[in-house]
Records
---
Amino acid sequence: GNSVTQMEGPVTLSEEAFLTINCTYTATGYPSLFWYVQYPGEGLQLLLKATKADDKGSNKGFEATYRKETTSFHLEKGSVQVSDSAVYFCALSDTGANSKLTFGKGITLSVRP
Amino acid sequence: GAGVSQSPSNKVTEKGKDVELRCDPISGHTALYWYRQSLGQGLEFLIYFQGNSAPDKSGLPSDRFSAERTGGSVSTLTIQRTQQEDSAVYLCASRPGGSSYEQYFGPGTRLTVT
């Protein structure tokens, strides 16, 4: 079955530091890939997506590239802000019958001023 | 436009009681999902509705869990004879359908079984 593996957390960075959160996946076929973010006390929000190999999703300064050869979808941001403190989930949706999302375990990011 | 809404936002119930959780998807979205978020298990798929098709119930953890979707819109997740291990945040999501696979989530219902 499908699975998503995220790097272990939590991660603590200083403001303006570079961020990388690793995500690899196992899936049959050609899944769509997503990063969701959950800010404290809030629900899951779609951060970015990529639907095919070599696609780059981007939003709010975050980027991730769909790498089929390494089955990866690492999240990056060049300069994090305190407001980026949240839990980040990598997820995939197969393009089959129910297109349910399979999530990684999530990683907590804390950015200190 | 309006996003996915869920009610109640919090629910505390006694072990053995039944609970109903409600989800209003984004207008026009044909696909609706329920997930459960708990500390030990992360985010788990529960059930999927698409239009008027039979739901995919493959993620429901036991026969105490059921869900329905009326008129292709509002959905209700029912948990009968609640147990302490049912304590979690229950999330609803909707999707436009077709070739668009991103899902939009509601704020969730935090269920606590005492």
---
Amino acid sequence: DAGVTQSPTHLIKTRGQQVTLRCSPKSGHDTVSWYQQALGQGPQFIFQYYEEEERQRGNFPDRFSGHQFPNYSSELNVNALLLGDSALYLCASSLDTPGGYTFGSGTRLTVV
Amino acid sequence: AQSVTQLGSHVSVSEGALVLLRCNYSSSVPPYLFWYVQYPNQGLQLLLKYTTGATLVKGINGFEAEFKKSETSFHLTKPSAHMSDAAEYFCAVSDVPHGNKLVFGAGTILRVKS
């Protein structure tokens, strides 16, 4: 059973560009959350999707947006990239019931 | 607002020694608590979680943690460290088991000396 799959694994973008990161949740999971982990820090919550809607959002600007598809997969979009957006972006999936989150291996985004 | 404090950004132990990683939390509602491990260039792997019930929680790889409400703590322990335990460990809190975000601590890097 595949866990959470994220693509691409690494990405280099230029300041001002736009980027889309993708996540396929663990089989059976219906909730997807995105986290940003800057170097040397703990993950920071960006937002969570359930039933194709954004259910909760962290303290991130509107440049960060997302989408969840009917098959529960999700995308994270970041517009007008800044150097400070360089980080590991983690996707986590879960069931909307007590349990635990399953994290993917992340996408390493470097903005130059 | 919820928060997590991990005491000690770096912890060094000898192989075979006790591992103790400290975590204190702040939550306005009964918390759900988690410990995750992260190996270099990888995602997070769940070690153990506390939701309700028994306050001593056993996880994978011989780790365990005890929820102490009076101390607002959820320290992670392992009786005997192994070289393969060297990694970064994150404590996290969520006030709803799901449907709510995880708030992570800053992490503790565990070094195991031979």
